[in-house]
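Input for the complex:
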Amino acid sequence: MNAYVYGYGKPGKERLIVIDLGVTFPDMDSSPGVDLIMADVAWLEENKHRIDAIFITHAHEDHIGALPHLWPRLRKPVYARRFTARIGALKLEEAGIGTEELHVVEPRPQVIEAGPFKVQFVPVSHSIPESSALVIDTPAGRIVHTGDFKLDGSPIVGEPFDPVLWHEIAGEGEGVKLLVCDSTNVFSPQPGRSEATLAEPLTKLIAEQEGMVVATTFASNVARLKTLAEAGKAAGRSICLLGRAMKRMVTVAEETAVLTGFPGHIPAEDAADVPRNHLMLIVTGSQGERRAASAQLSRGKYLGIEMKDGDTFLFSSKVIPGNERGVIRIMNAYSEKGVEVIDDRGGLYHVSGHANRPDLEAVHDLLKPQMLIPMHGEHRHMREHSKIATSKGIASLVATNGMMIDITGTAPKVAEYIEAGRTYLDGSVLIGALDGVVRDRIRMALNGHVLITVIIDEDDVPLGDAWVELMGLPEVGRSGTPIADQIEDELAEFLERAPDKIISNDDKMDEALRRIARQVTMEEIGKKPEVTVVVSRLMAD
Amino acid sequence: MNAYVYGYGKPGKERLIVIDLGVTFPDMDSSPGVDLIMADVAWLEENKHRIDAIFITHAHEDHIGALPHLWPRLRKPVYARRFTARIGALKLEEAGIGTEELHVVEPRPQVIEAGPFKVQFVPVSHSIPESSALVIDTPAGRIVHTGDFKLDGSPIVGEPFDPVLWHEIAGEGEGVKLLVCDSTNVFSPQPGRSEATLAEPLTKLIAEQEGMVVATTFASNVARLKTLAEAGKAAGRSICLLGRAMKRMVTVAEETAVLTGFPGHIPAEDAADVPRNHLMLIVTGSQGERRAASAQLSRGKYLGIEMKDGDTFLFSSKVIPGNERGVIRIMNAYSEKGVEVIDDRGGLYHVSGHANRPDLEAVHDLLKPQMLIPMHGEHRHMREHSKIATSKGIASLVATNGMMIDITGTAPKVAEYIEAGRTYLDGSVLIGALDGVVRDRIRMALNGHVLITVIIDEDDVPLGDAWVELMGLPEVGRSGTPIADQIEDELAEFLERAPDKIISNDDKMDEALRRIARQVTMEEIGKKPEVTVVVSRLMAD
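Predicted:
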């Protein structure tokens, strides 16, 4: 969930620009029920009078996904290249937000002036069209913010990485003061491979299949979609795209003219009529997402299409760490249907969109920055990247979330810590990650939930017995008597003997009843549940 | 969670033996709050008069972990080799179960007669001492049940894989009718490596470190523990084991004489006094388990020991698919402390305990079975293994959970489907996976929980207003008014106008109040929560 801020000016009065507003995805372990996770922009919101612009480097969700959710809090001009801006506009429109502040930018030499900043978009190769690095000139020097990139001389769709251009950028003025650089693949020791290397193995693989072929990849990897579709065509197959995100990406790429010559494809409703050995589906869901086309097809018929014994399912993708369970679930579901599952085990059918270690070193050498701050990766990736920089005599530091770094000297230096947590999109509202809402959900999921209701009459006497309901707990435990009945019995005994000063005090009642419920449950099933106590007090008329 | 059953006799009256009673581990996605997952043995329990014995191949949790939980339902003699039996006995004793039915078995040539079965334990190499295959002779032919194994000629601890012995087994009588064979590493194309190959790289690595060294591996991999400890000793370090499971394994291995010459080690309370460059910890938690020593050390001081900048943490292990998130969390926590994290990326510091594809093929060739049923692996692994067998002319079939296979013919054939689900250990009780308990927990975690209490008086008139509590839901949504208040208002309006026939009917009240709560919540935050309605009815005296 990328969101970077650069500032220039007197401390506390710096003018600010924001780079990217991305999301990350929730999981059951830490964020059950949450829809999206993004940066908490409270500090930016408080200081929004100081923000001059927002720049979006490319249209991956982890860089643009929070735009419709966070832009309404900031309401500043947004700059992006054509394809990225179009994806952004669709997101804003869907959220009912106007797009008048969204500006399409041409790549360098166009310069956007935003307060003290002069910003140029410089094309880089990545796994989505029009990914850009930003060259940010300030009175204190030049910053190169790489965005996500790889060194690909023939990326199929979009601009190749252009070392001559970067050489030029490095040579202008006083050179590059700071390189803020993608670190994702710092642990990959071999030079990265070009998107173009995939055409041959994919074409060969698909030609060899006898049943239906279904391939999945990242929806936004338009180059890969083209390679896959061309491989299918070459094997005499009709191509059908399944999945909203994927169709949108192809449409926007064609509309913005970054994609041309994409093979003709048929709608899903016609696919069922094509003989399976002449059909190839390209579908969403490379990460095992439960609602995506790949998962739907693994469970059974989807849009009239069903995979069968003898068909082939190809993952032209890698598993993003943490998504293994979902992907394995789908692979096994296909295996049970007799479908041949092919993944990228051998490295033949997927290439990464990020620069590997030798590529990163080549960029360091090309740009010769005075300082380097690693970005995009886990802490261990950034730490490794920082070590490489340091070993080459480039001053470096790992910036963690919320760290404000002073780069006016000869080495990066921590200036301040800004509170920078996470915001959750939960249904249709934004909540703070530390609001306790999700914590309560996790507790209910781990421990179950016991509800106790008691009615106390006008004279502070319990009216009837306490009532207990269990949710997410076994009905009976060791003793064989229903747990709810046992808690009710214990509560009845307690209420009968409890002095007025407890009965009349809500907090004491809550505490006492909760303790009894937890104790009984502990004895019966060895768990201490969450407990909600509702004491209803009747009032004298 | 392995549990296999072999039967011989007239259909429906077969005498039965059970091989292994294992567990698998829960996750938040599908089994939040659950402690352990094991096979549902309802069918075995119903037919326990037909069971003659239980055999345990080795002491890994996925083969022995359910013994204390499921044995009380079956109460049949259990056979295992010395080390395995000792681990089993400790488990039974902890659960307060007598061990008189637990029998220590010597390896072949000892034969255990159990009804129509004659069973021999045959030593195989794996990643825990005394792992055994079972040679099961029946009047219908010989079955070889491999258990978990690899082909290791020098496993450091325990017996090497002995091809001569297996050649002999294959040659006896009419040879092997059925091979039931480990499939875990069927997708690994290279021959497996010996445990002995690790000593050199581990010794070199540890000798090169300057700060404290902490290494983790699977607690039961006693051979690895020995190699690590010896490498530490060679580097002049004091060795300290942290983690109950690991200490237990070493103790049991020494008691049963399968482990000798394990380097002397110091207790945790002395470790803090050793200079860090002379200290090496060997700790539990290679899979990122939150309560294990590795996770505790990543969070801060643990037993007086703290990891610091310049220390090294070594994963002499692989990540079991699905555990990536936990492991990555720990790696990054160490990275933030400046600790160098070394994992098995290069294949230098870990070897698998399972046979790779060429090793499996070697075993097929050695045993020349008439049929092969793959086991131990996901469906896709078993399917691949089955394809290999078929391609070599060995009749094969993938058996999924609950499938009863007839092997009396020339090829395996599905005879029957037995209902075979999962049982959860939840706190201290066993519950059925489909009881709805865990489903309710998942729903509360995803959707939150709304509680509604209403009091109805003797004349079927609501007494006061309905009371609403939220758990795991934001307090306010779109409108800015607390959601609970809004639901209460809507409920008040409804109750005021509701006809007697609804007010007096519990089911209709439940349905109506639930619908209102879900509708308000949906409008406010776009989520439909779980709702519990408690209607308390006052009775006329």
